[in-house]
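Issue 218. Parser rejects a valid record. Input:
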Amino acid sequence: MLERYLILREKYDPNEFSDENMDFLLNKIKSLSSKRMFSDYEDFINPETNFESPILMYKNKFERYIVVTNFTLTSDSYSGDGAEITFDAMLKNKVTKQVETSSYKAVMNYIISDLSLVSQKKAPFCFAVTDYKTYKLSK
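Output the parser choked on:
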């Protein structure tokens, strides 16, 4: 679920950001996010409030593909359950076919139901990413 969340947030396909498909993408991300994380994502992609929105930066000229290179679950008493995921983002120019690759690390926290209670039907399954940050890695 965490890898899926990361890929949904980080990839860019102009078709998915079209008016016809945007609601579907937003609903997928919303279903895996806390309210704050979803609000942050909406702010991030909004070209009216974020001049670095992928919609403005990439438009219909680029596609961004994500490949996860490392995945580590983390846990501590302060921040709870989390994960660190390193990934490569390949930005492909649709006209020239040129590809530029950059590496990143995502650090996220999440909440998840107690799976033993879920399997015993004593609790519903719940999952949400509660914190999400990315950092560009130097080469």
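Fixed in the parser; the record now loads. The chain has one domain: 2-136.
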